[in-house]
C-alpha cells in the first residue's frame, strides 16, 4: 500500500474485545503471564509477548510497526527521545577503543554527545566532511563501526550524497546510520543505502510540540556476520554468545539467514532486537505509552503537514532572499544552497528549516528575536507553531569557535523552524520584525 495509507493503518488491527477504531492507549507498566512456564519462556526470548513496558508495550508496538512499514524497514524500536535513539544506536555496536565517522554539521545536542559523552566512553569520533568523500575514506580504520550523518543537517541544511556514502560504508563492512529527523516525509534514506535510520519523533512526527520521543528503524539488510563484505567477526555483539542471555547468539536466535526479502536478500532483526532486550532492559530510556499514542496521531497527518510546511518554507526563503535587511539565506530549496543538487535528487520537499543572516549581525539578531510577534523564540523544530532561534547562543552554545565553524554556524545565524500558519501572516511578521530590528 501507499505510504499515506500505511500512515493511517499499518501495525493496527481493530481488536475483537473492544472494536475500538483508533489505536487504544495501553497505559500499563506490566503484563500478566499465563503460567510460570509462559513467564520463563518470555524472559528467555523463546516466545514473543509483552513483559514490561520498559521493553515493549502494545501501543508503542503499533507506532514501531507503523513507522517501519512507512519507511520499508524490517523493524523499529521506540525510545524516550531523539537523543536516546542516537545513543542506543551507537552504543549497540561500539565499545571502548573503537570509533565512528561523523559529519560535524549535525544537531548541536548530537555534536555534544559525540564530542563529550561518547568520547568519555572510550569511543573516538573521526569527523569527516560528507561533501568530501576522501575525508570519509580517510576517517575509516579497522576500529570504525559506523558512518553517521543527518538527512538535512540541522541547522546548516546540508544534504549528503547518500548513495556514495552508503557505498563507502558497505565496502568497509560497516553500517550507514542516518538521522532523518528533519525529513521524515521528504526522504527515505533506506532507498539510498542507509542501514539504520534514527528519528527524533519530538519534531515533525509528533508535529505539535507536545511530546518527546525517538525511533530506531532497522532495514534488516546489513549483514552483521560480515560474510557479504569479507569482514567476518567485526560485530561480535551479534555473532558471539551473549553472557546476559546465557550464551544466546543474537544473529542465530533471530533467524540467522532464514528470512529473505523478495530479492533474496537476507533480513535479520538482531540490531533492534539487541537494543530492546539489552540496552532498554539495562539502561531504560523507554517511551511512555501515552507519548506513543500521541505520536500515532501525529503520524496520521504527517504527510499533509510536511507538504504544507515545505510550501510555506520555500515561499519564506524566496521572500527573505529578496529582502534588503537580509544578508544571506540558507535553504536547500534555493538554487543558491550548496546542497541544492542533492536536495533535488533525494528530497520530496525541502524541509522546514531556514537559516538567514541579518544586517547588523548579532545585535540586530537579538532585537529581531524580541520583535517577532507571531513566531515564538523557542529552540525546537517541527512544531505546528513557527519558531525562531539563535543557534550560536542556544542549541550549539557548548561548541568551540572551531566546532561552530565546522557546523556552519555563524554568530549572525538566525534559524526559523516553519510551522502551519498562513505564509502571508508569517511574512508580515518577519517584515515588521526586520524593519524594527536593523
Ligand atoms: N536529531 C535532530 C536532527 C534534532 O534536531 C534533534 C533535536 O533538536 C535531535 C536529534 C534530538 O531529539 P530530542 O530532542 O527528541 O532528544
Q: Layout of SSEs?
A:
Blueprint: H1 3-9, H2 36-43, H3 58-71, E1 75-79, H4 82-91, E2 99-102, H5 108-120, E3 124-127, H6 133-139, E4 144-150, H7 162-171, E5 176-179, E6 196-200, E7 214-218, H8 236-239, H9 250-253, H10 270-283, H11 289-321, E8 326-330, H12 340-346, E9 353-358, H13 361-371, E10 376-377, E11 387-389, H14 401-407, E12 413-417, H15 423-437
Parallel strand pairs: 2-3, 2-4, 4-5, 5-6, 10-11
Antiparallel strand pairs: 1-7, 6-7, 8-9, 9-12, 11-12
The chain binds pyridoxal-5'-phosphate (PLP).
Entry summary:
This protein has 438 residues and is an alpha/beta fold. It is 37% helix and 13% strand. Helix 1 (3-9) runs antiparallel to helix 3, helix 3 packs parallel to helix 11 (289-321) and helix 13 packs across helix 15 (423-437).
**Percentage beta strand:** 5-15%
Write the element-wise H/E pattern from the N-terminal end onward.
HHHEHEHEHEHEEEHHHHEHEHEEHEH
* Amino- and carboxy-terminal Cα gap: 51 Å
Small molecules bound? pyridoxal-5'-phosphate
Shape: globular
Number of helices: 15
Give the integer mean of the pLDDT values: 96
Backbone structural class: alpha/beta
* Biggest sheet statistics: 7 strands, mixed
Radius of gyration equals 22 Å
Helix content: 25-40%
Strand order of the largest sheet: 1-7-6-5-4-2-3
Q: Which residue ranges are poorly predicted, with pLDDT under 50 across at least 5 consecutive positions?
A: none
Count the E strands.
Answer: 12
Amino acid at each position: 500500500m501507499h505510504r499515506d495509507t500505511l500512515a493511517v493503518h499499518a501495525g493496527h488491527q481493530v481488536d475483537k474485545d473492544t472494536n475500538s477504531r483508533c489505536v487504544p492507549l495501553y497505559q500499563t507498566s506490566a503484563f500478566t503471564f499465563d503460567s510460570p512456564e509462559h513467564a520463563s519462556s518470555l524472559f528467555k526470548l523463546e516466545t514473543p509477548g509483552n513483559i514490561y513496558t520498559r521493553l515493549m508495550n502494545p501501543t508503542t508496538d503499533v507506532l514501531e510497526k507503523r513507522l517501519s512499514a512507512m519507511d520499508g524497514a524490517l523493524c523499529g524500536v521506540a525510545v524516550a527521545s531523539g537523543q536516546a535513539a542516537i545513543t542506543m544506536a551507537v552504543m549497540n555496536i561500539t565499545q571502548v577503543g573503537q570509533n565512528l565517522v561523523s559529519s560535524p554539521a549535525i544537531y548541536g545536542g548530537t555534536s555534544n554527545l559525540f564530542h563529550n559523552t561518547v568520547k568519555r566512553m572510550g569511543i573516538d569520533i573521526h569527523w569527516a566532511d560528507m561533501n568530501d568523500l576522501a575525508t570519509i575514506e580517510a576517517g575509516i580504520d579497522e576500529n570504525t563501526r559506523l558512518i553517521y550523518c543527518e538527512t538535512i543537517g540541522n541547522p546548516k541544511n546540508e544534504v549528503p550524497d547518500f548513495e556514495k556514502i552508503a557505498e563507502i560504508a558497505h565496502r568497509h563492512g560497516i553500517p550507514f546510520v542516518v538521522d532523518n529527523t528533519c525529513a521524515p516525509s521528504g526522504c527515505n534514506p533506506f532507498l539510498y543505502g542507509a542501514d539504520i535510520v534514527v528519528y527524533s519523533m519530538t519534531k515533525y512526527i509528533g508535529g505539535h510540540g507536545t511530546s518527546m520521543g525517538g525511533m530506531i528503524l532497522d532495514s534488516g539488510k546489513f549483514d552483521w556476520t560480515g560474510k557479504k563484505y569479507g569482514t567476518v567477526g567485526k560485530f561480535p555483539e551479534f555473532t558471539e554468545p551473549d553472557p546476559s542471555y546465557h550464551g544466546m547468539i543474537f544473529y542465530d536466535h533471530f533467524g540467522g539467514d532464514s528470512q529473505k526479502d523478495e530479492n533474496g536478500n537476507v533480513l535479520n532483526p538482531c540490531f533492534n532486537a539487541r537494543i530492546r532486550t539489552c540496552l532498554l532492559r539495562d539502561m531504560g530510556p523507554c517511551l511512555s505509552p501515552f507519548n506513543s499514542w500521541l505520536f500515532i496521531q501525529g503520524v496520521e497527518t504527517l504527510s499533509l503537514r510536511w507538504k504544507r510546511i515545505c510550501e510555506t518554507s520555500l515561499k519564506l526563503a524566496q521572500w527573505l532572499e529578496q529582502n534588503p535587511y537580509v544578508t544571506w539565506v540558507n535553504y536547500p530549496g534555493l538554487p543558491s544552497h550548496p546542497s541544492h543538487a542533492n536536495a533535488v535528487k533525494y528530497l520530496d520537499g525541502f524541509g522546514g528549516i531556514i537559516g538567514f543572516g541579518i544586517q547588523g549581525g548579532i545585535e540586530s539578531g537579538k532585537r529581531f528575536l524580541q520583535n517577532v510577534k507571531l513566531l515564538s523564540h523557542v529552540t525546537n523544530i517541527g512544531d505546528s507553531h513557527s519558531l525562531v532561534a539563535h543557534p550560536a547562543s542556544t542549541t550549539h552554545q557548548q561548541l568551540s569557535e572551531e566546532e561552530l565553524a565546522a557546523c556552519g554556524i555563524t554568530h549572525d545565524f538566525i534559524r526559523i523552524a516553519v510551522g502551519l500558519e498562513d505564509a502571508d501572516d508569517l511574512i508580515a511578521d518577519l517584515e515588521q520584525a526586520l524593519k524594527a530590528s536593523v
